[in-house]
């Protein structure tokens, strides 16, 4: 099922030896004979990838469509230095350059939609998961590697992912319609309908752009209810043979998914100097079950002793207003946003709680399935647990305001300065009640309440930031940046039920801190085709409060402070042979200190503290080559060596261990071909291979997931107005283990729920532009 691919490893190692990646993206120009540049706003002013002296990968909207990249997980798999852990759509946490965000309440990667920071839930059990938007009608995706603490602030320690939408056009009417249909091995019929219409309301004065998406994935993972459910084996250290057990009821394609949403953007330009953009985005994801399978046995099934559904939904709404006014020598930008997000999920815990409670009382016996059965363990008697589930609801809301002023023109001195404020509110409610009072825990604990935990967090952040650069006559450009931050937060936590030792309490916490994050960059730009740069920069994420914990637990600190990283990077960007070859690479070293770590004393109450250090070094490479008119190849490779530097016993961290969820090698190879047919029609073809090395993650114990590589291909015809493409994703039908999924209740030793990819999927993609 899984093999080590020596060729992919050699490609990744080759990338490292070449001094690896910084920032390249290029796509075929209309002439098919040179690689063209893309305008970016990574430094909050317009520039090109080639002239921006930071490590950046950019995928244009056209390239997203050409590659068939419809979600951010697929984008991350193709980008060096980016890793993730996931349970499915809307449940993905991204990391860059080894900086995992396991502890604390803030992410290590910033996530932006245009000018708006979209902070993930603070306390979700599935991590700091970002929204999973439709990528239709995007102008580009910018992936900025390395700390972005000066311009993008907290939570951008590892880097920043920035989605930039297409803006309304006040002069021309246009429309774009896309339809995709496909079939998945072991699944059903999938379909996606996307639409965009751009309406000039008043010529050269106002325009409205509307985008809608309706996506249905039928699913491919079965949910099997077994009767009888096989008991644990080998003195309850091994899961029973569920694959050979009798299936009482099967729910095929249980992880079906729907994504429905839309975006409306209104642009008003009263004068040539002033523009006002208002936008509303709404999106809802529903899923019947997560994209996880049981390991063991590792086939595409989740096995249950009882019929317990595991639905998930994610609803997101954003309102934003951006005002820009251009003076003669500078521009003022005001970006205001307010958004809210609600996630809900239910998880089956019947088997997990039997194993966990059995271990609590003593060596567990065979699984009791009759609701009236009793088991005697360790001198105590408890009733058969029956069907059990646990649910979590996370709500987040944020208001943000950024005001900045930036120089314009081509003078040697360029500068930017501004201020930022955000108010972030998050609540989390995790609860599990057994439905019948005379079974479950009632016989032993006097309650059917396994757990009922509420937590609320308020976080206010303030910042002043500035960055200036000077272009010296000898092709040297020096940039200095600084950001001052201040935050304060408070929390309230209420716990009750068996998991809280039968107690009920409400606990409060407070936290505040401030600091400075600098950036220094020196670039050498002798020609438009060569950039060599070095950067030293600092990134951070805010700390937060700890709720007091009761005796006999050790005293928890009242708050945990911000952690930070110093990053040192050398990189180059080169175009040559009449822009037919592009080679961008970098090497970097990072020193991560005061890491926010979650510790779990034996008393059962967890808290967060600053403890330990980690060191990360690595390299990335991105090459684009036009081999002949219409024929291009790109090769990306990344190497990341990320390990803990100190031992933290309470956090289960040992010096020398790899940081979690970080592949050591990644590589992506793409070959594309375009051949002119009659008129404006072209034949197009593309093949891609993506390799991701093994990772380590943590559930009941530290696990190692095997490497994988995925192959895809697309071929068809296109014109300026329409395209028709046949595609195959995961052509080799690989079952890739993406990440282990932590339980909402208790991880157990006999199995893991592992997120996996979609099996071989073959379909058609039709697009029409008007």
3D structure, described in words:
- There is one protein chain.
- This protein has 770 residues and is mainly beta.
- 5% of the residues lie in helices and 55% in strands.
- The protein has 5 helices and 47 strands.
- It has a 22-stranded antiparallel beta barrel. The protein has a 5-stranded mixed beta sheet with strand order 5-10-11-8-9. A 3-stranded mixed beta sheet has the order 16-15-20, with no helix packed on it.
- The longest helix is centred in the first third of the chain and has 12 residues, at 6-17.
- Mean pLDDT is 87; it is low at 1-31 and 359-384.
Low-pLDDT regions? 1-31, 359-384
Rounded mean pLDDT is: 87
Largest pleated sheet: 22 strands, antiparallel, barrel
Rg (CA only):
26 Å
Cα(first) to Cα(last) distance is: 46 Å
Instruction: State the shape.
Output: globular
Structural class by sheet pairing and helices: mainly beta
Helix share, percent: under 10%
Strands, total number: 47
What percent strand?
A: over 45%
The number of helices is 5
Brief account:
This protein is mainly β and about 775 residues long.
Task: List the main descriptive attributes of the protein structure presented here.
mainly beta; 22-stranded antiparallel barrel; 47 strands; 5% helix; globular; disordered N terminus
């Amino acid at each position: 099922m899984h093999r080590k691919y020596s060729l992919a490893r050699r490609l990744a190692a080759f990338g490292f030896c070449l001094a690896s990646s910084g920032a390249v993206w290029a796509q075929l120009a209309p002439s098919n004979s040179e690689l063209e540049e893309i305008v970016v706003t990574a430094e909050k002013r317009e520039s090109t990838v080639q002239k921006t002296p930071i490590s950046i990968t950019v995928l244009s909207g056209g390239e997203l469509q050409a590659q068939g990249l419809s979600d951010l997980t697929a984008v991350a798999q193709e980008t060096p230095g980016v890793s993730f852990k996931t349970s499915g759509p809307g449940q993905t946490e991204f990391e860059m350059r080894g900086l995992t965000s396991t502890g604390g309440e803030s992410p290590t990667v910033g996530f932006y939609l245009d000018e708006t920071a979209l902070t993930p839930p603070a306390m979700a059990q599935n991590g700091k998961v970002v929204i999973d938007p439709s990528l239709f009608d995007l102008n580009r995706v910018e992936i900025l590697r390395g700390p972005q603490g000066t311009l993008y602030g907290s939570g951008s320690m590892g880097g920043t992912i920035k989605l930039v939408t297409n803006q309304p056009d006040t002069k021309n009417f246009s429309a774009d319609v896309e339809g995709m249909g496909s079939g998945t091995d072991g699944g059903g019929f999938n379909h996606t309908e996307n639409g965009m219409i751009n309406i000039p309301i008043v010529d050269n004065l106002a325009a409205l752009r509307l985008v809608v998406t309706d996506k249905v994935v039928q699913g491919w993972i079965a949910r099997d209810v077994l009767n009888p459910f096989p008991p644990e084996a080998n003195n309850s250290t091994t899961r029973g043979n569920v694959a050979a057990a009798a299936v009482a009821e099967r729910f095929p394609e249980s992880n079906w998914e729907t994504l429905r949403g839309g975006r409306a953007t209104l642009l008003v330009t009263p004068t040539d100097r002033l523009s006002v953009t208002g936008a509303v985005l709404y999106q809802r994801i529903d899923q019947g079950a997560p994209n996880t399978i049981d390991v063991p046995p590792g086939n595409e099934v989740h096995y249950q002793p009882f019929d317990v559904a595991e639905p998930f939904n994610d609803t997101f709404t954003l309102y934003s207003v951006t005002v820009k006014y251009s003076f003669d020598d500078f521009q003022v930008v005001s970006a205001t946003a307010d958004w809210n997000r609600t996630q809900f999920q239910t998880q089956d815990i019947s088997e997990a709680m039997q194993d966990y409670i059995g271990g609590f009382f003593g060596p567990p016996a065979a699984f009791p399935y009759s609701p009236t059965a009793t088991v005697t363990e360790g001198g105590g008697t408890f009733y058969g647990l029956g069907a059990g589930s646990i649910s979590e609801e996370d709500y987040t809301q944020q208001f943000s305001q950024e005001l900045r002023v930036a120089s314009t023109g081509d003078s040697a001195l360029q500068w930017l300065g501004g201020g930022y404020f955000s108010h972030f509110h998050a609540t989390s409610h995790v609860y599990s009640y057994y439905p019948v009072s005379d079974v479950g825990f009632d016989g032993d604990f006097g309650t059917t309440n396994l757990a009922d935990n509420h937590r609320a967090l308020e976080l206010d952040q303030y910042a002043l930031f500035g960055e200036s650069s000077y272009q010296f006559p000898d092709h040297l450009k020096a940039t200095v940046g600084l950001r001052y931050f201040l935050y304060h937060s408070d929390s309230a936590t209420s716990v009750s039920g068996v998991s809280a030792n039968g107690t009920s309490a409400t606990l409060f916490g407070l936290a505040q801190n401030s600091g400075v994050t600098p950036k220094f960059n020196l670039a050498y730009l002798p020609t438009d085709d060569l950039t060599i740069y070095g950067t030293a920069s600092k990134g951070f994420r805010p700390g937060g409060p700890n709720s007091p914990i009761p005796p006999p637990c050790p005293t928890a600190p009242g708050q945990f402070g911000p952690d930070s990283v110093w990053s040192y990077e050398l990189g180059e960007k080169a175009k040559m042979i009449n822009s037919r070859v592009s080679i961008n690479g970098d090497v970097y070293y990072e020193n991560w200190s005061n890491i926010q770590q979650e510790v779990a004393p034996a008393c059962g109450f967890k808290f967060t503290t600053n403890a330990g250090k980690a060191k990360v070094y690595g390299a990335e490479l991105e090459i684009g080559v036009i081999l002949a008119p219409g024929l291009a190849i790109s090769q990306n490779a990344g190497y990341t060596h990320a390990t803990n530097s100190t031992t933290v016993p309470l956090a289960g961290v040992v010096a020398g261990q790899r940081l979690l969820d970080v592949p050591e090698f990644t590589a992506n190879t793409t070959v594309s071909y375009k051949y002119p047919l009659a008129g404006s029609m072209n034949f197009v073809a593309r093949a891609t291979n993506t390799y991701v090395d093994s990772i380590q993650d943590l559930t009941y114990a530290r696990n190692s997931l095997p490497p994988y590589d995925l192959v895809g291909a697309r071929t068809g015809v296109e014109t300026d107005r329409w395209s028709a493409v046949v595609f195959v994703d995961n052509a080799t039908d690989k079952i890739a283990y993406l990440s282990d999924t932590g339980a909402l209740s208790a991880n157990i030793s006999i199995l893991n729920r592992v997120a996996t990819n979609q099996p071989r999927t073959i379909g058609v993609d039709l697009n029409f532009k008007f």
